[in-house]
Amino acid sequence: MIAGLPRFQEGKELYSLHLNMAQECMNVFQKCHLPDVASVEQSMATGLDEDYKKPKNLADQVVRLLDDDAVTLPDRIRLIIQYILHRDGIFPTDIEKLLAHAQLPQQDNELIRNLDLLGARVLRQIKDTKPAPVPLFPKKPPPPTNLQDEVSLSRFDPLIKPMLEDQLKGMLDQNIFPYTKPMLDGDEALNSQLSMSQSSLRSAKPTWARTRPSAMEPRQRIFVFMAGGATYSESRACHEISRQYSRDVYLASSHMLTPSLFLRQLGDLSVDRRRLDLPLDRPQRQAPPHVFEKELPAQPSAGASTGQGVATAGLANMTISSGNRPVSSSVGADSNGTAEHKGHHLPHLHLHGSSQGGRGAVKVAKEKDGKEKKKGFFRF
Q: How far is Cα 173 from Cα 186, in angstroms, rounded to an integer?
């Protein structure tokens, strides 16, 4: 009966969708042997094994994974890169052996050597006495025993996490992370804090009169910009710091890095710059030429200008005269000399003018409301 309810069916479909997604992820996780790959990667990234001790036989574990057909080619390249970074450089013959075990093409050898362009050391000589680089932040103590099983595959923390922790504690090294503005002296900072704390009690709202919970109050904001792209593990570290210290941490970057994108960009470091088609090397966009063209004034044609000149000259030579002449054959004149047209007396106006040697007469008669009107005649 409950199974037939609509809400139960909708919830069952949603749960089944999530269960199917989780099952598909678990199938990929087991098919590509990702638990073994992740365990070796965590040991090389942190320098400690699952028991938080110095790892042993890492080279044998890496070779075993490189020979495994279930491990994908991108994962094999990443294993070789992490092993080189963990050892701070290896011999050239060792790189060739690792590439042979991984069955990678020769072009991937150039991809691995491009790590030198990022500041990492790839090749090590036999008599090389260069010391290993000092870590920026000290290693954290191991977590409690009851939590070691939960974090066995996520032991590595990106450097952004200890950096934010030192920043919140006021212990961040100013030589490595200098201020963009001059820092206040101890006395000035103390005076500024005292001036802010010594505000009037009348203007301050009492704590017992708060109407909203403390979770809705504004918190300190920290903005972190990661140049060259940020990873999702760094985003997770910012979220953990925000939740642990009750701060709003904002991570900004040009783009988000994925393993495949990082490998592609690492290989592009040795490619000819003209083939990369970088936005900086592209020609600057320009507006089309017709945008900058000025509109010329319209010039009249020859025929139109001649006709206009003739008409103007004809109007200039016109004279206006009034007379008591008959207008036409269709208009009759009575004995008094007035024009008569179908029983109506119409006013007439004679315009005499000449144009290009010819003379003509224009006769205009107007009639309105059947009433006789005369223009040009004044009789007293």
A: 17
Strand partners, 321: 350
Condensed to tens digits (0 to 9), the pLDDT of residues 253-282 reads: 999 999 999 999 998 888 888 888 888 888
Kindly report the number of other CB atoms within 10 A of residue 161's CB atom.
Answer: 19
DSSP per-residue codes, 18-75 = HHHHHHHHHHHHHHTTHHHHHHHHHHHHHS--TTSS----HHHHHHHHHT-TTS-HHH
Which are the contacts of 103, defined by CB distance < 8 A and separation ≥ 6? none
Task: Write the pLDDT tens digit of every residue in 75-131.
Answer: 999 999 999 999 888 998 898 899 889 988 878 888 898 999 988 888 888 777 777
> Encoding tokens for residue 240?
């953990």
- Label residue 238 left, alpha or beta by phi (over 0 means left) and psi (-120 to 50 means alpha): alpha
Q: Is 256 helix (H, G, I), strand (E, B) or coil?
A: strand
Nearest to 372 by CA among 351, 330, 341: 341
Q: Please, is 196 exposed, middle or buried when counting C-beta atoms within 10 Å of its C-beta (0-12, 13-18, 19+)?
A: exposed
